[in-house]
Amino acid sequence: MYAGFKRAEQLGYTAAFLLGDFRYYKKFGFKPIKELKIENKTPFPEEHVLGCEIVQGSLKNISGYIENLG
Fold it and tell me: Is residue 9 within 8 Å of residue 54, measured between CB atoms?
């Protein structure tokens, strides 16, 4: 996961989002998107739509929604 974050940052990405189990992905820094003040507009349960800052502070002043994870 960390190698993926490093590569994503090299490509200019500052955050990552995924569909998964928080109990597993929290060790990589993922949080439910509601904690990031991002709305879930996907058909998936909110507790499984997760986000993570690759660059610290990159989502601090961001608002919006996620409607597609594929």
Answer: yes
Length of the chain: 70
Q: What is the pLDDT of residues 11-41, one digit of tens each?
A: 999 999 999 999 999 999 999 999 999 999 9
Q: In this structure, what token pair is assigned to residue 11?
A: 């490509």
Q: E strands within 9-66?
A: 15-19, 31-32, 38-40, 49-53, 64-66
Q: pLDDT at position 70, please?
A: 64
b (16+ CB within 10 A) / e for 43-60: eeeeebbbbbbbeeeebe
In sequence order, the β-bridge partners of residue 10 are none
